[in-house]
Design brief:
Layout (H helix, E strand, L loop, with lengths): L1 H56 L2 H30 L1 H20 L4 H29 L3 H32 L3 H4 L1 H12 L15 H23 L5 H23 L7 H5 L1 H31 L4 H29 L2 H17 L9 H29 L5 H26 L6 H23 L8
């Protein structure tokens, strides 16, 4: 009798444990989705509000560029160490810390009394977002060990970003009609809800307590910051101005120090063997190009539709809606296409679609109606929606579980650096209002060329572990 009872209890306990694990995985996915949603929303909601911020605070094109790039710069620079920290302290713990920093900084942005405080708060906001992205991906990698279920979970996670991208411009336009400060306050309830969901998931294991790579992190911030500063200031003054040249020198020296620190350091935040892997190198390059095209286009057209065509913030936000909605619809398709045809198919197709859309946007004359630009934006968003989830899924499938946070940090750092540099360089090209349209077309064609080049490189992606 006793022998027949024990297995039943064991079986019931096992079943309950599996249900608990599955439920915890769903809570983890929900929290990760909301975290990715809110940081994507914040990245795009600001673009439509830039003219309103400029009218309140001044600062010209350079000031507006820093409102965008203050966020993306810290996001990109700290993503490298954020991935490593995520692996060491645990995905759940890192995600929660990043979300708290992001939410508090959002409140500071909404309360900023001047442009300087706003930019500083945006820097802190970017630091929080830098932890959220790799931690959310590592959380998914941890909660869904099965590759097929993980691919579906990543598609759901990517859809959260797509919905954030869809809502960002529209919500930015609507809230800017009331006050641009509202675009930051909207992050607060989302952040609190994500933290609540996170408490329902399982605590993540720690990978160790290795010392933090301060040399590598400081060098990464200096390299990216110097390069971004030089690109922004080159548009405001002559490229050969001493402060621009000094910023470039700082960027080069810091880059050399970073590589040396990763090669010789006892605890590098980005091991060079990871960067040497073909899949990692190609994924980072592809991600960089895709963000140059996508975020560069949104920055440019957000200014063009308001400053050159006279649209209101709300109308400008609505102009982006068809593109961003289709992006949200297409993103879940990428995983299914990758599973059926291999990752190369959605990656290359997405890049070619984006490049075609960027070129097409250069064709209409200045008198073209806004609805034509709305239609021509659609291939750009659709292409990104196909390529980004496929690249992310490919990378996470090819790296060891203990490197998932670091690898996703490198990928997303490259993507955000592409976004930051596109705003810096393209903003310089359109800073002269008399030649705005020429600068816009030059910028879009440059982005299209870069995406085509990485599409060619994507053909080198093999359907086996690099």
């Amino acid at each position: 009798m006793s022998s027949s009872v024990a297995p039943g209890r064991s079986s019931a306990g096992t079943a309950a444990g599996k249900r608990g694990t599955a439920k915890g995985a769903r809570w983890a996915l929900a929290a990760a989705l909301l975290g990715f949603f809110v940081m994507t929303l914040d990245a795009l909601i600001v673009n439509v509000a830039l003219p309103e911020i400029g009218r309140d605070f001044g600062g010209g094109m350079t000031g507006l560029q820093w409102v965008v790039d203050g966020y993306t710069l810290m996001f990109a620079a700290l993503l490298l160490s954020a991935g490593s920290v995520t692996d060491r302290i645990g995905a759940r713990q890192a995600f929660g810390a990043g979300l708290v920093v992001f939410t508090v900084a959002s409140a500071a942005c909404g309360l900023a009394p001047d442009l300087g405080v706003l930019v500083i708060a945006r820097l802190v906001q970017g630091a929080g977002a830098a932890v959220i992205v790799p931690a959310s991906l590592a959380l998914i990698r941890e909660a869904f060990p099965d590759p097929a279920r993980r691919a579906r979970a990543i598609s759901v996670w990517a859809m959260g970003g797509s919905v954030g991208a869809a809502a960002g411009p529209v919500l930015g336009g609507v809230l800017s009609e009331l006050s641009w400060r509202m675009i930051f306050f909207v992050n607060l309830p989302v952040g609190v809800l994500a933290l609540f969901l996170l408490t329902r998931s399982a605590r993540s294991p720690r990978q160790g307590d290795a010392p933090f790579d301060w040399t590598g992190q400081i060098a990464a911030v200096a390299a990216m910051g110097g390069l971004t500063y030089a690109a922004i200031e080159a548009g405001a003054v002559r490229p050969g101005t001493p402060r621009v040249l000094l910023a470039l020198v700082v960027a080069v020296v810091a880059a050399v120090v970073f590589v040396a620190a990763q090669a010789r350091g006892r605890h590098p935040m980005v091991p060079l063997e990871l960067l040497r892997a073909r899949t990692m190198a190609l994924s980072a390059t592809i991600g960089f190009a895709l963000n140059v095209g996508f975020y560069g286009m949104i920055f440019l057209l957000g200014l063009y539709l308001q400053q050159e065509q006279g649209l209101s913030p709300m109308a400008t936000g609505l102009a982006f809606l068809p593109m961003t909605l289709l992006t949200a619809v297409v993103s879940p398709t990428a995983a299914r296409l990758a599973a059926k045809f291999g990752a190369r198919m959605p990656i290359v197709t997405g890049q070619l679609l984006m490049a075609a859309g960027l070129v097409a946007l250069c064709v209409p004359p200045a008198s073209a109606p806004a609805w034509l630009l709305v239609l021509l934006m659609i291939p750009v968003g659709t292409g990104g929606g196909l390529a980004v989830p496929a690249v992310t899924s490919l990378l996470l499938d090819r790296v060891p579980a203990q490197r998932a946070g670091t690898a996703s940090g490198v990928l997303n750092a490259s993507r955000q650096l592409g976004g930051a540099l596109s705003v810096a360089v393209f903003g310089a090209l359109v800073s002269n209002h008399a030649h705005f349209l020429h600068g816009l077309r030059t910028s879009l064609l440059t982005a299209a060329l870069l995406v085509v080049l990485t599409a060619v490189a994507s053909v080198l992606v093999e359907e086996k572990t690099a």
